[in-house]
Amino acid sequence: MSSTILISGGTLPDGKKSDLLIKDGVIAEIATTIKAEGAEKIDASNAILLPGLVDLHTHLREPGKEDAETVESGSRAGVKGGFTALSAMANTSPVADTAGVVEQVFRLGQSAGLLDVFPIGAVTRGLEGEHLAEIGAMADSVARVRVFSDDGHCVFDPLVMRRALEYVKKFDGVIAQHAQEPRLTQGSQMNEGVVSSQLGLKGWPAIAEEAIIARDVLLADHVQSRLHICHLTTAGGVEIIRWAKARGIDVTAEVTPHHLLLTDELARSYDPVFKVNPPLRTESDVMALREALADGTIDIVATDHAPHPAETKECEWQEASFGMLGLETALSIVNKTMVETGLMNWATVAERMSYAPARIGRYASQGQELKVGAPAHIAVMDPTQLFRVDRDLVASRSRNTPFHGMELPGRILATIFAGRVVFEGSHA
Amino acid sequence: MRHLLSIADLSKSDALQILNTAEELARVSDGPMKKLPTLRGRTIVNLFAEDSTRTRISFEAAAKRLSADVINFSAKGSSVSKGESLKDTAQTLQAMGADAVIIRHSASGAAQRLADSQWMAGSVVNAGDGTHEHPSQALLDAFTIRKHLAHGGDDLTGLHIAIVGDVLHSRVARSNVLLLTKLGAKVTLVAPPTLLPVGVESWPVSVSYDFDSVIASVDAVMMLRIQLERMTELFFPNAREYSRYFGLNRDRLKRMKPNAIVMHPGPMNRGLEITADSADSARSVILEQVTNGVSVRMAILYLLLAGSQEIGASE
Question: How far is Cα B131 from Cα B33, in angstroms, rounded to an integer?
């Protein structure tokens, strides 16, 4: 299967221009000029070479919602966005709360064969927040689950959260919390603020996120376990994470590409393509999130890629599903919001989108520096090429991208997974 | 503009044009021949996905006085309540050749969704969308206020109007705040803090938690309907306490300025936000609001469908 690939003239995350030779699934040589007869050649002379991106938060919808996405279609969307690993969220049907379901998802990922699919296990049975799911069995399964999350639902009961945090210490797992105080967000439709009040849409106050984060960093400290905060959206949440890290609490946090770019002003269209949970916030939240991602308070970018079939978005706002696509545009959004703005360099992008998420998920084979001997998981991206997002051309089975029609900087030229070219973009 | 979705889309002159047209049409309605041939052959659909008898019959009367064909499509027994999507309903109405759809819907933004989509080509009139807006109600309220209090003036400059009650959930309040201030009035919102929207400080209004401190200085009070389920949602302790602090009663009525008027969009909860004697007092213009509603809705349909002059053409 594996072949010899020569990537020539690319720029490594540290800024050095190098040729890079891949043989038998690993990086065989990195040098200024490499000659390799018979190798498949990729011209990367305008491109950045990044370690294959790792997404810690993906909804692949299979099993149960195959009209929205499958493991295979989600994998294709992933490699198109430069990812070589996805983490399949547990809110499928049936819920990924047993070893059987996580093994099924894991095997579907292997048979698609485009990238690594790491299943996330549910924290509680049926995501109901009451009884622990078969956490140990999932950890011991073929899928070797290390990340547990009830994403879509908050693990609200403080005792359940405490026990979950304690229990996963047995195998160095982590609880990824969807921080949403349920009573303060009943029926919520969008960020609570000036815009929601004008639009007459029920608000989702920032405090409902911050209150849970505050509680959970204290719990994680108390039981000395690992906590990860999913999709952080508020300036207040950033402050709490910053405080917790300063205290030495073992907490990590993620931000989505859409929360780095879009604001609640977009709800004025009442177009549910902008409806997402947690909701789009204000400009000042966006700026706080960017700053926190740059300084490391927020550890990673995770997509929260959430495909939905057309009929659940072609309707009234309050009837519509929450969620937006993210895989195919993530790196371009980060380029636009973080690199082009001078907040981050490519080395930091590699950290936030590859090394750190792989560390949090304990994905040993992923998130490694591009050096000789490392597995050849590589994203080749031309950061200067502009492309217009077209929802009719996505690899995902769904079309709910909020970036439709937007011109974004940065095109993935190729994605290499385990030494194989799994995606090759057209050279414009 | 082909639609009437939000007061925010209207310029001051658009709004005045509607009010002035309504005044002309009211004169016709007062005459012996109530009916005008203007919209003969046009089909107007009343799409009421939420119960509202009074708004529906008001629009129906308005359309019929302009000789339009009116089809009533109400939620009960219709496909909307059977789970048909708004898109399918709209496409069905389009296939039937509706020239305009008057939509009442429990979802905020439903009217705008209908207008912005490619689902249908006709005009869309928002007859109340969730807790967002109810533009025709605000226009009829402004019409009523102008008639009583503007002393021949064109707009509402110099008038002070209190909107009292559940502002948070009120589409009537949202549309009125936009329209009355656009027409030059000073607006004070009176409500318990729980029933005021977050960010109300950015609205062009004053806010008071104390009805008694406001009542003597206003030219009109607009009482909002309070729904009893707000009590179980913890917005206030009980009906008695709500009435005591925010209800219009005989004592407050007495303290009003000599010519001040009492308004209510209906339907009223007598004994809750308004006592029977206040509702039936000489200050009350509540029934007149209903009458004016027909003229104002005639004006809206007339301007959207009949003339070359378009509402909002200036924007």
Answer: 38
Overall residue count recorded for chain A in this entry: 428
- Is B315 a residue whose pLDDT tops 60? no
H-run or E-run covering B230: helix B229-232
Of A97, A151, A304, A382, the catalytic one is: A304
Identify whether the C-beta of residue B165 lies closer than 8 Å to the C-beta of residue B228: no
Instruction: Write down the mean pLDDT value for chain A.
Output: 97
Give me the mean pLDDT over the A238-266 stretch: 98
Judge if the upstream peptide bond of residue A307 is cis by omega within 30 degrees of 0.
Answer: no
Structural tokens at position B296: 């104002």
CA distance A402 to A287: 19
Nearest CA in chain A to B88: A315
Please provide the average confidence, as pLDDT, over all residues in chain B.
92
A298-307 pLDDT, tens digit each: 999 999 999 9
Rounded to a whole number of angstroms, the distance between the first and last alpha carbons of chain A is 28
- DSSP 3-state of B47: strand
Check residue A76 and give its pLDDT. 98
Interface residue ranges in chain B relative to chain A, Cβ cutoff 8 Å: 85-87, 105, 107-110, 112-113, 116-117, 129-133, 171, 174, 197-200, 202
Q: What is the DSSP letter of A156?
A: -
Report the DSSP pairing between strands B160-164 and A190-191: unpaired
**Residues on chain B touching A314 (C-beta within 8 angstroms):** 85, 87, 117
A51-361 CATH: 3.20.20.140
Contact A196 B107 (CB under 8 A): no
Q: Is A250 a catalytic residue?
A: no
Q: Which of chain A's residues have a Cβ under 8 Å away from the Cβ of B200?
A: 197
Cα(B140)–Cα(B151) distance, rounded to whole angstroms? Answer: 17
Instruction: Tell me the torsion sign for CA atoms B101, B106, B110, B111.
Output: positive
Å between A261 CA and nearest CA of chain B: 23
Domains of chain B: 7-133+290-305 (3.40.50.1370), 135-289 (3.40.50.1370)
SS3 B14: helix
Among chain B residues, the shortest Cα distance to A191 is held by B198
Nearest-Cα residue of chain B relative to residue A204: B198
Reply yes or no on whether the pLDDT at A310 is more than 60.
Answer: yes
Q: Which of B286, B287, B264 is nearest to B162 (CA)?
A: B264
Q: What is residue B280's DSSP assignment?
A: T
| ipTM entry | 0.93
The arithmetic mean of pLDDT across residues A63-73, rounded, is 98
C-alpha to C-alpha distance for A85 and B106, rounded to whole angstroms: 43
- CA distance readout (Å), B52 to A62, B73, B176, B272: 43, 12, 19, 20
Please state the rounded mean pLDDT for residues B70-80. 72
Q: How many other C-beta atoms are found inside a 10 Å radius of the C-beta of residue B225?
A: 18
Strands B261-263 and B220-223, how do they pair? parallel
